[in-house]
Design goal:
- The protein is built from six helices and four strands.
- With about 140 residues, the chain is α/β, with parallel strands linked by helices.
- It has a four-stranded parallel beta sheet with strand order 1-2-3-4.
- Helix 1 crosses helix 2, helix 2 (about 45-55) packs parallel to helix 3 and helix 3 (about 70-80) runs parallel beside helix 5.
- It is elongated.
């Protein structure tokens, strides 16, 4: 898939997302899929876009795929109409999370905070678990 090389405007986001939300069967629009960078870095664009979308339709699901680096921004997006959140991690343990993800400018605690905020706001919350046979399937990883 060819990636876009610019940050879209709110109108450009609406131009793609709004018709889909209004017309598709069981529509979902999603910000962030994993390769194009962290969508929370554009949280103001997301906030304005989600607010505008929800002012024009209550149909469908608005999702955010994120590393969960900014729980306050996640809470703001939930407040304006975000419906679901998916946070990527490889382990529920700070040590292993840090070894793999090597976070810069945020901490494992912030990631947990984003998941907690989303649950408090009662939006659908999930973990995109990166699976590594021999590691992820160890008993303590599965239990935690």
């Amino acid at each position: 898939m060819e990636r876009i090389r610019f940050v879209p405007t709110v109108d450009e986001v609406l131009g793609v997302a709004l018709p889909h939300l209004k017309e598709a069967e069981d529509p979902i629009v999603s910000f962030g899929q994993g390769c194009e960078g962290e969508p929370l870095m554009q949280w103001q664009l997301l906030e304005r876009s989600i607010r505008e979308l929800r002012e024009r339709t209550d149909r469908g699901t608005i999702n955010l795929n994120t590393n969960g680096s900014f729980p306050g921004k996640v809470a703001t997006l939930c407040d304006v109409g975000l419906d679901s959140l998916r946070v990527t991690l490889n382990s529920p343990h700070r040590k292993y999370y840090n070894r793999y993800h090597k976070p810069k400018g945020y901490t494992f605690g912030k990631v947990v905070g984003s998941l907690t905020k989303a649950k408090e706001k009662e939006i659908y919350t999930s973990i995109n678990l990166l699976v590594f046979p021999g590691f992820t399937d160890r008993e303590n990883e599965v239990e935690d």
